[in-house]
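thought: user wants a sequence for this fold. calling inverse folding tool.
action: design(structure=
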């Protein structure tokens, strides 16, 4: 099959998204027209069948870590919008000698196109979701309805209707006794766990404020090929379209924001005031996202977090988080504490957060003790979206306003396969809805 997928072929947009976000579901209707592999009998073989949706860099890495979590884990099905991404990912995994015997993805379990996730969900026990975030709410809802275990990469939505949908789906997964692990991977790094445990135990006293920074360089761009449809172009360059990525504050800086929410014992800020714009990435090829944001978050009790993120080439990089308390300062990235109870992580044990999260996921399935990351993954996504809403509109946005927002970033023309790029937001002109 050609790598160039036509907008109305395998890359036909999922028409169900808006329906799902409104609370209904037409997934069964959608699946009834798809050629799905059937005949799966969960739990019979002692093998945990894993399926991957979104076979890019992170998806391939997540599949690798899943397979390294035990000999009973098998990669059983894959899906990607583009056949060559799926095949490249399988080739990468098959090239790892340590995975010998753990990959059994027969051709009929390689599902190409935007509806392929249904085939993966249908045939596997555990589903790894690693597509661009726009698709996550619909994919998570399908996993929830099918009652499968879930690993969901961050962020899990790009707008508030997506967040509300994910909150509902996550509850559904929980009520079915299934495990739900989020790709908020720092939560699975032992050094961060110990640092934040100490903060919670009072090592720096009452938390007064935090500073979190994700200043890094620009990311990849795939260019444009003449035979790509507009939809294919945007999906291949998903980082730069806010309907697909949620903007870089949601796509990347969520890691930093989630760490601060964790420090705050999973209490989320009451409001955010943010400034942002495009200084470097001003060309049309960079779609409609910003390249910098600077935000002040404030909690009900007055605690503040000063957050900044930018993706600029040729500028200083800094990825760090510092928590100021009444009796000391904690540095999360270096896992150290200064002040009344000084401490520095000096463990030499392996501490690969990506491996740790998969080890925890599969152990929870084997032990019958489900993990539930559903609320934090949705709320940390909203914490990022709330700041983006503030920067785009130029207004202070409260948590309640953000959660109730009706803004649906799905572009005009998406259902027809020709998404229109919304204008770059202008603070003070762009309205919050
Ligand atoms: N936890 C982390 O540290 C971390 C690191 C990198 C990326 N991520 C997250 O993982 C996700 C993927 O990022 P990536 O870097 O792997 O991107 P990527 O572009 O390398 O991979 C995305 C893949 O999804 C495919 N795809 C797009 N739409 C699809 C659809 N509807 N159905 C099936 N496949 C589809 C693309 O063709 C591509 O192969 C993002 O949400 C990103 O934020 C997390």
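)
observation: tool returned 433 residues.
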């Amino acid at each position: 099959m050609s790598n160039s997928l036509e907008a109305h072929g395998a890359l036909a947009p999922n028409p169900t998204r808006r329906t799902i976000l409104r609370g209904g579901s037409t997934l069964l209707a959608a699946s009834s027209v798809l050629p799905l592999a059937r005949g799966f009998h969960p739990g019979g073989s002692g093998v945990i069948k894993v399926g991957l949706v979104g076979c890019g860099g992170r998806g391939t890495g997540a599949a690798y870590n899943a397979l390294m979590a035990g000999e009973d884990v098998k990669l059983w099905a894959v899906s990607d919008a583009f056949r060559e991404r799926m095949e490249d990912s399988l080739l990468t995994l098959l090239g790892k000698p340590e995975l010998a015997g753990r990959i059994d993805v027969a051709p009929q379990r390689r599902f190409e196109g935007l509806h392929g996730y249904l085939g993966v969900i249908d045939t596997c026990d555990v589903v790894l979701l690693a597509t661009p975030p726009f698709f996550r709410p619909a994919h998570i809802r399908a996993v929830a309805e099918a009652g499968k275990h879930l690993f969901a990469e961050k962020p899990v939505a790009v707008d508030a209707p997506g967040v509300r949908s994910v909150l509902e789906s996550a509850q559904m997964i929980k009520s079915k006794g299934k495990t739900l692990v989020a790709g908020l991977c720092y939560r699975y790094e032992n050094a961060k766990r110990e640092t934040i445990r100490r903060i919670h135990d009072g090592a720096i006293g009452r938390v007064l404020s935090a500073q979190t920074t994700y200043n890094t360089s620009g990311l990849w761009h795939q260019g444009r090929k003449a035979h790509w449809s507009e939809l294919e172009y945007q999906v291949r360059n998903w980082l730069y379209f806010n309907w697909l990525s949620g903007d870089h504050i949601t796509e990347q800086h969520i890691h930093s924001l989630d760490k601060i929410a964790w420090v705050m014992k999973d209490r989320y800020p009451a409001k955010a005031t943010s400034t942002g714009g495009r200084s470097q990435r001003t060309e049309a090829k960079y779609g409609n996202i910003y390249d910098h944001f600077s935000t002040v978050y404030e909690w009900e009790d007055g605690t503040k977090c000063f957050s900044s993120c930018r993706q600029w080439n040729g500028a200083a990089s800094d990825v760090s988080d510092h928590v100021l308390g009444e009796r000391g300062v904690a540095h999360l990235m270096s896992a150290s504490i200064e002040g009344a109870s000084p401490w520095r992580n000096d463990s030499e044990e392996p501490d690969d957060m990506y491996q740790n999260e998969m080890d925890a996921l599969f152990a929870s399935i084997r032990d019958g003790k489900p993990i539930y990351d559903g609320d934090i993954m949705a709320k940390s996504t909203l914490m990022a979206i709330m700041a983006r809403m503030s920067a785009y509109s130029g207004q202070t946005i409260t948590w309640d306003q953000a959660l109730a927002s009706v803004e649906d970033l799905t572009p005009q023309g998406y259902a027809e396969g020709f998404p229109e790029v919304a204008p770059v937001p202008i603070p003070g002109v762009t309205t919050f809805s």
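thought: summarizing for user.
answer: Here is the designed sequence. The longest strand covers residues 207-216.
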